Amino acid sequence: MLRMLEPGTYFIHRGDRIDNWIGVVSGLLRLGSITTSGKAVTYAGLPPSCWFGEGSLLKGEPRQYDVLALRRTQVALLNRSTFFWLFENSVAFDRLLVRLINERLGQFIAQVEHDRTLDSTGKVARSLASLFNPVISPFVGSHIDISQEEIGLLAGVSRPVANRILQELEKAGLIRNESGGVTILDLEKLRGYGE
User: Fold this and answer.
1) Which alpha helices (DSSP H) does 118-184 contain, by range?
2) Which InterPro entries would you find in this protein's record (predicted)?
3) Class assignment of domain 2-191?
4) From edge to edge, which strands make up the β-sheet containing 40-46?
5) What is the pLDDT of residue 114?
């Protein structure tokens, strides 16, 4: 089943029970939460071709995060029964799940390190690079439609700071900052920025 989400729509709230594995067909989602003081915390950006939510399905527990559409986004919903049929009957599907979970775990551990050790430029560079993970989002390509405000939300910086940093990254030859999006020119250097 397909569903269209408008910008600013909360698709999932923390504590919801959702009976689907979710894939991003187009657009961009923000996976995160809101603290009790009202601060938005971003865990990941979810670009096209990214599937998520397998952990909550496998553990049978409510979602541990909010999912917000940053722009008009189409999602595909694979229902629980089909998900578990594949889980029980397809070794290839199980290998895909293990690979996704392992890759995502590595990404989150790296994000904790980046949040503690990198400056704003490093956080923006690494946040952008994470959107181009070939395991988690295999069909993203080298360009993503994303605004400076959305980059700021994902990296935890303001839009003006994101704008300044994108200009720095472009001057360094790592990206091409375009109207309404970013093209990655050197993904490896972007991934290792700040090391």
Assistant:
1) 120-130, 148-155, 159-171
2) cNMP-bd_dom, cNMP-bd_dom_sf, Env_Response_Regulators, HTH_CRP, RmlC-like_jellyroll, WH-like_DNA-bd_sf, WH_DNA-bd_sf
3) mainly beta
4) 10-12, 66-69, 29-34, 40-46
5) 85
